[in-house]
Amino acid sequence: MLDVQGLGIRFGGNQAVQDVTASIPAGQITAIIGPNGAGKSTFFNLISGFYQPTSGKIVFLGEDITPLKTHQVVARGIARTFQTTTIYRELSVLENAMIGHRVRTKAGLLDALLRTGREKRDDQESRAGAMRALERVGLATQANRPAGALTQEGQKRVGIAMALSSDPKLLLLDEPAAGMNPEETVNLMALIRELVAGGLTIALVEHKMSLVMGLADQILVLHHGQKISQGTPGEVSRDPAVIEAYLGSHAHGGQMGQSTQGADHA
Ligand SMILES: Nc1ncnc2c1ncn2[C@@H]1O[C@H](COP(=O)(O)OP(=O)(O)O)[C@@H](O)[C@H]1O
Ligand SMILES: [Mg+2]
């Protein structure tokens, strides 16, 4: 579904992502893991058009989307959530999802908040799209509650609904389980499985190894901006290069090797 070839970006002297060639197959869950600062979020920022790569190519459904801006990428069918979800706590769950729809379609965030003329025209379409997204994440009955009144898990679901409201084919989730307790994490895993069963393709960045190992069809491992491994959870966790990268990292030392002992952390 998505192929990146030789993808790279440099910030000054820092090569944050370097020569990454990888694919995200349709209908599957791809996990992107790696120590802190490995380039995982930057990889998502490149795919979603937030950053322009300094080298390489991004092909989505046969189309070269490398030069496209965020809203154009969204229009092609790629949506994302952010590592730190920004929801509008005082607005209703539905309004949040509608903002997600507008920001991701025609109008910008400012328009969305100010309700200009164009917004009124888009209103019905946004409402319908937002309601469909809320149904998919199990929040339809909470649509009129203030988003800030929801649990941490509920607020994460709002963030996912905001991304789903543009009806993407590929959804990128950046650390969706961060800050979640084990029960919430299990619920989130069930939601991700449901979304994929419904036809969505998902790529996610996540530190919680129980989630990664329990969900991913394939794992891509980044280290210092480079892809050091790609394969099934079993293949990747046995890969000496991966074990060494994790053992050598102070931030996540030994986590891969200890995944069966539940070495989760946020
Ligand atoms: N906008 C930016 N400007 C400069 N450096 C950046 C920017 N975004 C990311 N980086 C750098 O890229 C590297 C990878 O960061 P990131 O992708 O956030 O890592 P990860 O998500 O794997 O923890 C880090 O060294 C980070 O400082
Ligand atoms: Mg990150």
TrEMBL record:
The keyword Transport applies. SMART domains: AAA. Residues 2-249 form the ABC transporter domain. Keywords: ATP-binding, Nucleotide-binding, Transport. InterPro entries: AAA+_ATPase (IPR003593), ABC_AA/LPS_Transport (IPR051120), ABC_transporter-like_ATP-bd (IPR003439), BCA_ABC_TP_C (IPR032823), P-loop_NTPase (IPR027417). GO terms for molecular function: ATP binding. This is ABC transporter ATP-binding protein. It comes from Deinococcus antarcticus. The lineage of its organism: Bacteria, Thermotogati, Deinococcota, Deinococci, Deinococcales.
